[in-house]
Amino acid sequence: MYAGTGALKTDFTRTGRRTIAGALQDGVNSVTRYYLNNFSDGIRQDSFDLLVGNFTPDKRDESPFTFQQQHSFLNVMLEAALATLAVVSVSLSMRQELPVATRVRDGVIATFTLFAVTGYLIVKKGKFRSIGRRYVCKPAFSSSGYIRRKTA
Which of the ends of the chain has fewer CB neighbours closer than 10 A, N or C? Predict the structure, then answer.
């Protein structure tokens, strides 16, 4: 197991040839690994640091979690905006009084708008204003300098 997913190219290892189903499963595993490693493994690294003794809590030190807590309001607002846009997209394509072609067209336009807005937020705002860095789940102890590296 690597990051909570199975091995890649298992169909090639078993049968000696690649299959479409195996390639699709590798894609799912790769996306799952990316998500787990970037958005949810920071807490796991912190627990390892506590377990092996790399970090010892001290009441005199400031909490290493204060930086991550400062950005939670921005994250909630951004997620609420994207969720609202998704609900509007679905509701536009679900109106029963319109013909099917119009509903499909409205749904495609709304979905494209949702992807465009999300892409803009990730690429432009994430690159220039560091919104993307706020979503990444970094280990609080090692990334904030709380773990001092031992020098020989």
Answer: C
